[in-house]
Amino acid sequence: MTLFEQYYDADYERARDALMHKAEVKANRNFGKTFKKGDTTASLKWAAGWTKCFAREMERLVTEAGIKN
Fold it and tell me: How far is CA 26 from CA 13, 29, 68, in A?
């Protein structure tokens, strides 16, 4: 058995995947679906903010759902 097979939890992955849409919707609502083309500084700022919002919302949803790895 490989390390991957030993530690991979398909149920955990499916449970988290089911929450991704909700986190994406929140990030899109807060930051928009895409960045400003042609403006590198604004694009980087958007990407950082969107990613931070998405990650925080995923953690909140996972905690709320009681999903454990």
Answer: 20, 5, 22
- If we measure between CA atoms, which residue out of 59, 60, 63, 52 comes closest to residue 27? 52
Instruction: Assess contact for 23 and 61: CB atoms under 8 A.
Output: yes
User: How far apart are the C-alpha atoms of 10 and 16, rounded to whole Å?
Assistant: 10
- Which alpha helices (H) appear in 1-69, and where do they start and end? 3-7, 10-31, 40-65
Give me the residue label for tokens 């694009």: 43
**What are the structural domain ranges in the chain?**
39-69
Band of pLDDT at residue 5, cut at 50, 70 and 90:
confident
Is pTM, for the whole model, over 0.70?
yes
